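Chain and backbone:
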Amino acid sequence: MTAQPEQGPRAIERAKQQVRDRIWALLEREAAAKSPGRVVGKIPNFRGAEAAADQLAGLPAWEAARVVKTNPDKAQRAVRAKALGEGKVLYMAVPRLADELPFYLLDPEHLGMSPWEAAAKEGAAKAGRKVAATELPSVDLVICGSVAVNRQGARVGKGGGFSDLEVAFLVEAGVLRPDTILGTTVHALQLVDEPLPETIHDFRVDLIVTPDETIWCAEPHRPPGILWEHLDPDKIAEVPALAALSARR
């Protein structure tokens, strides 16, 4: 199922939730998630996440990246640790963007703990410094979490729209270049063949990495920034950085 122009946001969200429910059930049925194995409502912490991080780290695009921005979910902890271990400057989103300064800056030269420890949410809160998107330098590589993704780069997250907002913040700040790579690491079972429901504020990824496969996508889409008309007052109030930007409009 794919989103049609006449579909409203509620219909698209219902279609996305059907995809989430199916993939979450599949991962649990196939024991593809790490212990305790519960993935409902989450970016799945999948078995093979470390192998996917290794696969990603073998790419020239990874080697060339000096500044990496990631999500805070457990599934991408190995990616964050690898970035820090290789001396890359890492920006990690504050979970649920719950601060007016919505990103942690993690400088590999000033962590005070191991890269693996700093790559956890708790470690990042201790080792990192909260910054605004406008404080980020130009970003070379963005890695996000996904519940499902197809080979065209369309993705479905866990709901809430936080990944899309993170990218929109980078666009608004002017630090997401045309050649910045947007990628995701997933279990092979999260890779689907059908079209996925999406709206204009949903970004597509350029790169998908599983433990065994690397896929470059040929149909990119990036939002033009924060689409205020797509945000209801509750969402704006929920995200302090959005509320601050809204107050300045």
Notes: Confidence is low (pLDDT under 50) at residues 1-6. The two ends are 36 Å apart (CA to CA). The first helix runs from residue 9 to 29.
